[in-house]
């Protein structure tokens, strides 16, 4: 079952069409794995009476496609999704947690593609339980991308670090830690000019959008640089050599 991006259910290799309530029920069950009938009915049909909500739940369960093993099993008041149902969200969660915790395999291959190109959970669905889970997954993925970029810089693999850092920037353009990762990758390659330009672009973005400056921590990443070139009149009307002056970004 695919929940990242548009909902999609496949049995074997064939897509299965479901009514909207069937999609909602399986999506919720796929995320939770097990839930009581009362909680499930109240979550999916919150604006009707408990009796009506339970009736809608029974109807939706009856309309689910027949499969072996059944997609949803009953155990008393509990409903359990079959372990045979593969849900993409759990793959993303396991990958991201392994990166954040440092418990995954050594990064001796390309960064996990589901972190770099992962889609949002059920875009366009605006129910509260979807919004909460979507934000949880988004934050987990962003932290994993930041951790991954930092690890790749330490391994002297700045090009791959840049891929992870930019994936984080695309997901959240105002997130400073993602921009620090981009600058860190530039500095690892010795591209000081690129690092300074990226910092200045981010500083302008923060000023325009939020009216704030980057943190002192970000500014301290950058080396001192020569100030603006300027000329002055020399005796006899000539020009002196360009002057120099040093300054440092941030506090």
**What is the helix tally?**
10
H/E element sequence:
EEHEHHEEHHHHHHHEE
CATH class of the largest domain: Mainly Alpha
CATH architecture identity of the largest domain: Alpha Horseshoe
Structural class: mainly alpha
Low-confidence stretches: 226-251
Strand order of the largest sheet: 3-5-4
CATH topology of the largest domain: Serine Threonine Protein Phosphatase 5, Tetratricopeptide repeat
N- to C-terminal separation? 50 Å
Instruction: Provide mean pLDDT, rounded.
Output: 87
Please tell me the total number of domains: 2
Radius of gyration: 26 Å
Total strand segments: 7
User: What share of the residues does DSSP label as strand, in percent?
Assistant: 5-15%
Q: Note the overall shape.
A: elongated
Largest beta sheet, briefly?
Answer: 3 strands, antiparallel
Structural account:
The structure is a single chain. With 251 residues, this protein is mainly alpha-helical. It folds into two domains: 10-81, Orthogonal Bundle (Arc Repressor Mutant, subunit A), CATH 1.10.10; 88-226, Alpha Horseshoe (Serine Threonine Protein Phosphatase 5, Tetratricopeptide repeat). It has ten helices and seven strands. It has helices spanning 20-32, 37-44, 50-63, 88-101, 113-116, 128-154, 158-171, 176-188, 192-209, 216-220, and strands at residues 10-11, 14-15, 34-36, 72-75, 78-81, 225-226, 246-247. A three-stranded antiparallel sheet has the order 3-5-4. A hairpin with a 2-residue loop joins strand 1 and strand 2. The radius of gyration is 26 Å and the shape is elongated. The two termini are 50 Å apart. The model is unreliable at 226-251 (pLDDT under 50).
């Amino acid at each position: 079952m695919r929940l990242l991006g548009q909902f999609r259910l496949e049995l074997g290799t064939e897509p299965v069409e479901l009514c909207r309530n069937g999609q909602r029920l399986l999506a919720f069950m796929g995320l939770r794995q097990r839930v009581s009938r009362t909680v499930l009915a109240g979550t999916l049909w919150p604006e009707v009476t408990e009796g009506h909500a339970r009736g809608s739940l029974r109807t939706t369960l009856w309309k689910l496609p027949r499969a072996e093993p059944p997609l949803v099993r009953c155990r008393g008041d509990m409903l359990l999704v079959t372990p045979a149902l593969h849900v993409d969200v759990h793959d993303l969660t396991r990958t991201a947690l392994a990166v954040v915790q440092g418990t995954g395999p050594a990064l001796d291959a390309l960064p996990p593609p589901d972190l770099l190109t992962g889609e949002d959970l059920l875009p366009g669905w605006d129910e509260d339980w979807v919004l909460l889970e979507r934000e949880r997954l988004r934050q987990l993925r962003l932290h994993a991308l930041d951790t991954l970029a930092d690890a790749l810089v330490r391994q002297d693999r700045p090009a791959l670090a840049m891929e992870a850092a930019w994936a984080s920037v695309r997901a959240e353009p105002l997130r400073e830690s993602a921009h620090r990762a981009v600058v860190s990758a530039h500095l690892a390659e010795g591209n000081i000019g690129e690092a300074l330009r990226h910092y200045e672009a981010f500083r302008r973005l923060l000023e325009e959008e939020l009216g704030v400056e980057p943190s002192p921590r970000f500014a301290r990443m950058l080396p001192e640089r020569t100030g603006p070139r300027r000329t002055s009149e020399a005796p006899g009307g000539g020009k002196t050599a360009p002057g120099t002056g040093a300054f440092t970004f941030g506090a």
